[in-house]
Amino acid sequence: MNIVIEGAGEVGSHLAKMLRAEANAVTVIDSDEDRLKALGAYADVETVRGNPSSIAILKQAGVAKADLFIAVFPFAPQEVNLVGALLARQIGAKKVIARINDEDFLSAENKLLFKEMGIELMFYPERSAADEIVHALRHGNATETMDFARGKLQISVFKIDEESPLVDRTLEEFIRMMTPQEATLFRIIAVSRGEQTLIPGFAMKFLYGDTVYTIAKREGMDCIAKYFGKAESNVKRVMILGGSSIGRMVARSLGRKGMDVKIIDKDKERCIALTEALEENILIVQGDGRNSDFLYEEGIRDCDAFVALTGSDETNVLACVVAKKFGVPRTVAEVENIEYIKIAEEMGVDTVINKKLITAARIFKFTLSGKARFVKYLSRTDAEVIEYTTAPGSAITKAPLKDLRFPKNAIICGVIRGGEAFIAIGSTQIEAYDRVTVFALPQTINEIDRFFK
Fold it and tell me: pLDDT (tens digit, 9 = 90+) per residue, 262-314?
């Protein structure tokens, strides 16, 4: 694909690197020469310096022949991205996407208005991050989850700790532990160990520290949590460190679900603004959340979850470590430096949120066939989860799964057919219009895509 990206900030640079790695031709526009030089140092992309709203610059960047135009210009009003996207569409770009920072634009009415003008997707990374955090807190016994068909199928990520019944057992031994009924409810699809992501065979042994990826039907979630030694977490009291836009949205969502929420921020003016913007049942406290004595006085030991959303990755990670030492069962940290994500997980942070990865997943599906409905990157691995709608006559429908030469670094996890959801096994025959969930390592994505065309 020919892809033009407006903006060489953090999000734009990450997208450029990721999309170029998939053999796309990528051109990046930015008015800041230093940002373009920094990008060019580690990504093999074309760069064009100039005003992102200039028709001449857009044409110079090849927008007229672009398959995809992504407007993510940093440190500028959202109107810059919207104007750039609309101009790109008129000049000839086949699909255009724009970053925004106003929730009102995401209403159904407004999204329809902009779609009629040609913008395929408007995304608000902070809103997406807030939604991920709320979702993580509602599924407290896994480190990460994602739902399909409103929860009929769920992919969950579990860390094997010392108390897990699976330690030092093989996959075959684990299967023998299950009843025939339980075996239809969930499946282990992958294991992350160190720097490797493994598609497990029967002889593979689970080790302490492994991260295990599972898919389950809704009624199988309690069962799978039992086998991983994870008690159901009922989050009622949440402390949020940092009154950023993400913190505000998380607090509002949790407050509306009846949870007790407290936001701590050291900035007096921000605390006043939060008090005016949020409902009365959300408590705002001014103070330095880096001070463990202050956190203790504010009742951190009574919290079910601690969410760190300051502008500092280091502060967020260390605050979560402190929260764990105070006995908080569930911690979430925003970590924007991708290099720090693994460190944060190794230090015991339960869930790590990264806006760039969330945004990249939403955009990446536009580079696949039109049958890809959903893409998500998973923590602790470079793997992706993709949901496809099966095209009539596609290769995936030609035989049962065991008879297809499906890529070895990918696995079909589950199928939604009409109102029914089921776990995929070797004898499963995919049918036209099935919604199919695939777990895949990056090197197999293009090959998988061809199965569903």
Answer: 999 999 999 999 999 999 899 999 999 999 999 999 999 999 999 999 999 99
Q: Which two tokens stand for residue 311?
A: 């502008």
Strands 435-440 and 410-417: antiparallel
Q: May I ask the CATH class of domain 2-123?
A: alpha beta
Amino acid symbol at 79: E
- Cα R_g (the chain), whole angstroms: 23
Q: Mean pLDDT of residues grouped by 10 in the chain (453 residues)? A: 94 88 89 95 93 95 96 92 96 95 87 92 92 84 76 86 84 88 88 86 90 88 79 84 96 94 96 94 94 95 96 96 95 92 89 87 73 70 85 94 91 92 93 93 85 89
Is there a contact between 165 and 227 (Cβ–Cβ < 8 Å)? yes
The strand pairing partners of 409, in sequence order, are: none
Architecture of domain 136-227: 2-Layer Sandwich (3.30)
Count CB-CB contacts under 10 A for residue 59.
Answer: 14
Enter the pTM of the model.
0.79
Please give the class, per CATH, of domain 365-452.
alpha beta
Tokens for 297? Answer: 């006085």
CA dist list (Å): 32 to 14, 54, 99, 248: 17, 14, 19, 31
Q: Is there a shared CATH topology between the 2-123 domain and the 136-227 domain? A: no
Nearest-angstrom CA–CA distance, 183 and 50: 58
- Locate 140 and state its tokens: 């407290």
